[in-house]
Write a structure and sequence with these properties.
By secondary structure, the protein is of the alpha/beta class. The chain contains 7 helices and 15 strands. The protein starts with a strand and ends in a 24-residue tail after the last helix.
Length: 301
């Protein structure tokens, strides 16, 4: 199976310009004839949830809206799957952060909806609801699942995706490297002192990002592929670092700090060997009930 990730900047002022840019990258990625092309989270709008402004609801679209209609045409043109993530208006007043998977005929194959909209370093939680279903889709000879951005930071999410059959987990991201204005940060003093930028420039964030991807791949014996933005968007700098990691925890390919497409072929033999030698067979799910116990019911000291 062949996959391509689009690492792009979505700082254009209109959805139309961001989608046009994404389409240019889709055309470029399609030259490698991948089985699936992935765009980042918020690729059509940029990362507006750093702001508290309910006018941003106007950026949400229906599944038959402008963005997905254009992406459907691209999938049909290039005879490939495309995973495009938008803020979806499912019904009046009902919004989700949705990865919409489109098949080579330009039809919607299914959706995954973000389960962990964050509220600690952004305001995503005020804009949309959380999803509740892990989905697995058959593409070529791989079972493919999705997570979105913050979902990846919860180890239970990729583990659940793997237990639901995933051989490959694709993760559209909108990962901020650092904020550039104290008005959009929950730690404004860090922005004023330049501490977030200093931490990013030190390479500590990239080390954490790479290590997390490698660990998620290794502990679940599956391929993982986070797909991120890059560069300045509004009042932030996006961290980039898009990569594809194999089930042994090896990074196969990683994007440079620029807009680009990265691609790789995935090998089922590597997947099979990783599964055969993994520690997954030693799991003790009978001991893990505490993970699903409500906080108020825990016997905390």
């Amino acid at each position: 199976m062949d996959i391509s990730l689009i690492q792009m900047n979505s700082g254009e002022k209109t959805t139309e310009k961001n989608v046009a840019k994404a389409c240019d990258f889709i055309d470029k990625a399609a030259k490698d004839s991948p089985d699936i092309i992935v765009t980042p989270e918020y690729f059509n709008t940029g990362y507006f949830p750093m702001y508290r402004d309910f006018k941003n609801y106007s950026k949400a679209e229906r599944e038959d809206g402008y963005t997905i209609t254009i992406i459907k045409d691209k999938a049909k043109q290039h005879k490939t799957h495309i995973a495009a993530t938008i803020i979806e208006e499912d019904a009046m007043g009902v919004f989700y952060n949705s990865t919409i998977l489109i098949n080579p005929n330009g039809e919607i194959l299914g959706k995954y909806r973000k389960m962990h909209p964050p509220a600690n370093s952004s305001l995503e939680k005020i804009y949309y609801r959380n999803g509740a279903n892990f989905r697995t889709f058959k593409i070529e000879d791989f079972n493919v699942s999705f997570l979105i951005c913050a979902d990846f930071y919860f180890p239970e999410a990729p583990r659940s995706a793997m237990l639901n059959g995933a051989d490959l987990i694709l993760i559209p991201f909108c990962e901020v490297g650092y904020y550039t204005s104290p008005e959009v940060s929950n730690k404004p003093e860090d922005i004023e002192k330049g501490l977030q930028k200093k931490n990013f420039d030190s390479g500590q964030r990239r080390l954490l990002w790479n290590s997390l991807s490698m660990i998620r791949a290794y502990e679940n014996a599956c391929y993982v592929a986070p797909c991120n933005h890059i560069g300045y968007e509004f009042d932030s700098y996006m961290a980039g670092g898009s990569l594809i990691c194999d089930p042994t925890g090896k990074i196969i390919v990683q994007a440079e700090d620029e807009e680009m497409v990265i691609s790789s072929s995935l090998d089922r033999n590597i997947l099979r060997k990783a599964r055969n030698s993994s520690m997954l067979k030693d799991r003790r799910p009978d001991l893990y009930n505490i993970i699903t116990t409500p906080m108020e019911d825990l016997l905390l000291p």
